[in-house]
Amino acid sequence: MLEGLDEEDIKQRCARGDRAAYARLYTFYFKPLYRHVFLFLKSKEETEEVVQDAFVKIWENRTALPEVKNLKPYLYRVTKNLLLDHLRRLQTQNKVIRIVSPETEPLEDSTSNQINHKDYIALSMEAIQHLTEKRRKIFLMRTQQELSLDEIAQELGISKSVVKKQLYAAITFVREYMHKHGGISAGILIMLLEALS
Questions:
Q1: What residues have CB less than 8 Å from 26, skipping those under 6 apart?
Q2: pLDDT of residue 50
Q3: Which CATH architecture has domain 7-91?
Q4: H helix intervals, 101-158
Q5: Three-state SS for 5?
Q6: Selecting from 1.20.1250.20, 1.10.10.10, 2.60.40.10, 3.40.50.300, what CATH number does the domain 101-196 have?
Q7: φ and ψ at 2, to 5 degrees?
Q8: pTM
Q9: pLDDT of 107
Q10: How far apart, in Å, do the first and last CA atoms of the chain sit?
């Protein structure tokens, strides 16, 4: 029950597009969901983004709310799924950064370097989106799923040499894209030949 307003009423009103009911739902559940997500992300900005996305998703799917048996577990499940998606994206981004950054230049934990690190991640993800579908898939299978070249070849039904060529082309493109669009010196970027082994 939401402080004198039962969940059934809130669900029905939200489903009809009642923004006041939705605002009540948002106000009631925002802080607990925020606290829950913050335990995992430890970042106010990222936590807020995940929780806001959860409420957007709930609003977009509001017509299904009357079918929801228990509102609280539903809200936590939607938020948890978005949190997991966010964590997977972070894992992929960090993997890409490890691949395209030299081991000899660790990022320091200063505000300036954190901003540069975020810009670097955003630029690398932008570069990946410009890859052809096949190259992007191979690149992400290697970096996100950490599959070997043999495993990728088997899953896609192509030869290992084709996987190697496509991965090499993808890495080269990402490196050159980041150099061109980020003004990053060639010394900061590496070829990733070790990723091809």
A1: 55
A2: 92
A3: Orthogonal Bundle (1.10)
A4: 111-129, 133-143, 149-156
A5: strand
A6: 1.10.10.10
A7: -100, 85
A8: 0.50
A9: 44
A10: 57
